[in-house]
Give the backbone structure.
Amino acid sequence: MKELSNGKWFARGLKAGIPIGLGYLAVAFTLGISARGAGLTAFQATLTSFLINASAGEFVGFTLMSAGAGYLEVAVMEAVANARYLLMSFSLSQKLRPETGILHRLIIGWYVTDEVFGVSISAPGYLNPFYTYGAIALACPGWALGTCLGVVMGNILPAAVVRALSVGLYGMFIAIFVPPSKKSRTVCLLVVVSMALSYAFARIPTFAGISEGIRTIILTVLLSSAAAVLAPVREVSGE
């Protein structure tokens, strides 16, 4: 099978990034409103979203800024809110070819978001960095622009409309995990079990008090470990 060029992989990544960018544009409206409440200008909020790329982390940061929290408190809360990205980075590092350079790894690591991770980890064979770059090329501007618009005109739109726009991200998540689930019974079973356990963890009092990010890490480690033992992947094809 002929290897695709970097340009073709980038084009595929752009296609995968269209729903991500549109979803980010909508969701970031509410983030922009939160940023304005914290006293940030449109430029400051836009630059923050461009450099950080973390919805939960930014919401936490803006909320703490509004409350006048100290640097240490902000640093600790940001570490907790974004801890799940460590697991995503570990997973993507195994998806890349061993000879992939450090610069490519750093760029991909800079923009590990839930959605970009989802499309990148689903790419066939080894991950070509340019596929992820294509997704980032639309996702990053969408997130930053949405934040800017939220600061400038977020309160003009009715709250119900802003919330409705964010539904697009859930549809995109469904589009990511449904095709692999149809091809693999193991993946399908893991999706069903993860949904059930995630709901249970959110309802059980013992776990409900744990932050969403920590719950995600716990479930990810448990389910991925179980899958590795019960249905190991012996070798990743480079085709």
